[in-house]
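S1.2 Input.
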Amino acid sequence: MTRAYVGLGANLDDPRTHIERALAELARLPRTRLVARSSLYRSAPVGFRAQPDFLNAVAALDTDLDPQSLFEALRAIERRHGRERPFPGAPRTLDLDLLLYGEDTIATPTLAVPHPRMHERAFVLAPLAEIAPEARVPGRGPVAELLAACAGQRIERLA
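S1.3 Output.
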């Protein structure tokens, strides 16, 4: 089994419900076990700012799925939640990102792991640090140090 981390985000159509349902769907993936989930965090949008704040979380999975199969399963979950991609950074019902897959670095036309911008986004690093404080981003360093470098970003842990 490989430990993988998945980032979850949503800002449309009852984001909390989309994230909670997606976590349940992650737990039902074949040859995969949900081993931890973070609290929910509220964060300001990045890029296209004329949209509602996001709710974010991170899930830890132990999986026997290869990275591409896991990525495709994440995309299928997004589609079931009505995810549309009209333009980069658009509001969304659900966004699932494969952040880390073991200690692997993957670069294919459809998949980049670690997620290319995770090291500069508090809305990814804070929930990841909550459930895996010892985690490291290959080629970037410890999550705790990366999070400290994002101190100016607005993020709020929800109860």
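S1.4 Remarks. The domain at 2-157 is CATH 3.30.70.560 (Alpha-Beta Plaits).
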